[in-house]
Amino acid sequence: MISVNSLSYSIAGNAVLHNFNLKIARGQHTLLLGASGCGKTTLLHLLAGLLAPGAGEIAFDGKNIHALSADEKDRWRGAHIGMVFQTMHLVDALSIADNLRLAAQMAGKAQDDARIAGLLAALGLTDKASRYPHQLSVGQAQRAAIARAVVNKPGWILADEPTSALDDEHAHATIALLQQQAEENNSTLIIATHDQRIKNHFAHTVTL
Amino acid sequence: MNLFTLSLAYLHARKLTNILLVVLLALGVATMSLLFHCSHQAEARLSRDAQGIDLVVGAKGSPLQLVLSSVYHMDIPTGNIARKDADTIIKNPQVKQAIPLALGDSYHGFRIVGTDANYAQHYNAQLADGMFFSAPMEAVAGADTGLSVGSSFAGNHGLVESNDVHAEFPYKVVGVLKPTSTVLDRLILTPLESVWRIHEGHHHHDEDEKEEHASNEITALLVSYKSPISAMSMPREINRNTNMQAASPALEIARLLSLLGIGIDTLHMFGAVLMASAVVGMLVALYQSMQARRYDLAIMRVLGGTKATLIKQVLLESLILLAAGIALGLLLSHGALGLLPHLSAQLATLKLNAFAFLPEELMACSGLLLAGLLVSVLPAFSIYRMDVSRILAHG
């Protein structure tokens, strides 16, 4: 369960979130819908512990993550959160398989090559394992980014505008893939987007 | 995948820049290392050759020239001195030992030295083959001369190769010395009488030219004092009261090294500037790399990497670059130390050892490593100020 209570956050004196409340059950798939600049990305970054709230509390299964030290927060994030971005942010210096290994390395987890191979096979990227990000199409790179986000079987998957740069076909395929991976790993999925095309995929929508 | 392989991947991604940095570092290290070895070996060689020789007595002229020609066999002698004058030095109660030298001829660039058995004993030389000379025109060859027992040769008149050969006075090699790592290795020793005999019988084409050597002359005396206190008075007495010159090898070589030292220091500075340039280049490259990788670093934080882990990874990259530069530099310099003696006879005399490492060389490498890591800390610590959220939001 994610519990957001009376959350406020300002940038340069302008309130981006004010007294915001949210509850998301374990395993639930939630769409955070809103126009650009409404604070979706800020909310995701607050949930991931990348930003500290001005006021209020964010608790994952009752644990207030902002009470953790910086290092504890990094480790907690590595262990429990998987993030997907609009621009994939794959590490160009590493092959696709190494990008997935990097996720395990940074999270301090054992690198499970069988899990990586299985994941890449499931996402149709087996033959791209040794390729570098610049050698992939946009759709392939987005699938690789999803694979990296779920490789550690995170409890929560946070995706920020994962379909904005994709055409209809790829947008729907990406959402289906995220939902499938979330279900397989029993992860809670939260997607922040302004992309109206995908709202039919979600039963639980929160409008900001 | 670990921090080391991650660092290698990043270095590989910017391989041209990094190869150039490693080459720059290696050139600095190699220059410093070579200079350390050459100057160290040259100084060691100079002090070995002059060991136990307190004073050189010879003809008046440049004291440095006298020392160089009589101790190191590197310059032409200042002239000859009369035997009777030399005898007064030999019989001086302050003198423990005085070794006479008669120079003037050479064989294929190796100087033929008329002397007595004490000269070889002074350097603790041992025979590798044959026996020591016992009669005029017998010769004992140094280890580097290439002569063998039983062979004969005729000396060139003068200390450089010429067509003026004493063909009518052949030497017979009766012994070959073991290597001593001293000047002895490049000399051919013979009794004083051999030199006198040749030069008494030697006639120049130019009738006016006077013969340098005669049986009543030697070139120099290598003197050891009974007591160090003699150094206070004896050189002054000789220089003031005789027509001979006394020169202290220690003083003359110290003077020579102080003159050469300016050049050596300049070369050391050149090596240090090369190394410093490489370190500054590394700093610039690292700053650029940190800018280019800010998204990667932000992603690593998202994936759970702590600031300390990321800093470790960046420093590890610097460490790999520095280690590669130092290793390549040492490989180049020690490879050169192994090769140079084969390319130059002069350098061969320094007995450079490709497998020896000098403390100052290792200290310079450690200093470079430390300086490189210190300058790497600056860009690495920008990770602490990194706003991950902002970087990702603007991605």
Report on the structure:
The complex is a heterodimer of chains A (208) and B (395). With 208 residues, chain A is an alpha/beta fold. Chain A has a single domain (28-41, 69-207), classed as Rossmann fold (3-Layer(aba) Sandwich), CATH 3.40.50. Chain A has helices spanning 40-47, 70-80, 96-107, 113-122, 138-150, 168-184, and strands at residues 2-11, 14-24, 29-33, 55-60, 63-64, 81-84, 156-160, 188-193, 204-207. Chain A has a five-stranded parallel β-sheet, with helices on both faces. Chain A has a four-stranded antiparallel β-sheet with strand order 2-1-4-5, covered by helices on one side. The radius of gyration of chain A is 17 Å and the shape is globular. The mean pLDDT of chain A is 91. Chain B is an alpha+beta fold. Chain B has two domains: 3-46 and 256-393, no CATH class; 55-247, no CATH class. In chain B, the strands form two sheets. Chain B has a six-stranded mixed β-barrel. In chain B, strands 2-10 form a two-stranded antiparallel sheet. Residues 203-213 of chain B have low confidence and may be disordered. Chains A and B meet through helix 1, helix 2 and helix 3 of A and helix 1, helix 9, helix 10 and helix 13 of B.
Strands, helices and their partners?
The complex is a heterodimer of chains A (208) and B (395).
Chain A: E1 2-11, E2 14-24, E3 29-33, H1 40-47, E4 55-60, E5 63-64, H2 70-80, E6 81-84, H3 96-107, H4 113-122, H5 138-150, E7 156-160, H6 168-184, E8 188-193, E9 204-207
Parallel strand pairs in A: 3-8, 3-9, 6-7, 7-8
Antiparallel strand pairs in A: 1-2, 1-4, 4-5
Helix pairs in contact in A: 2-3, 3-5, 5-6
Chain B: H1 3-13, H2 15-50, E1 55-59, H3 63-70, E2 81-82, H4 83-90, E3 95-107, E4 110-115, H5 117-122, E5 127-130, E6 138-141, E7 152-157, E8 165-177, E9 187-191, H6 192-201, E10 217-218, E11 220-225, H7 230-241, E12 244-247, H8 249-292, H9 294-302, H10 307-343, H11 345-348, H12 359-380, H13 388-393
Helix pairs in contact in B: 1-10, 2-8, 2-10, 2-12, 3-8, 8-12, 10-12
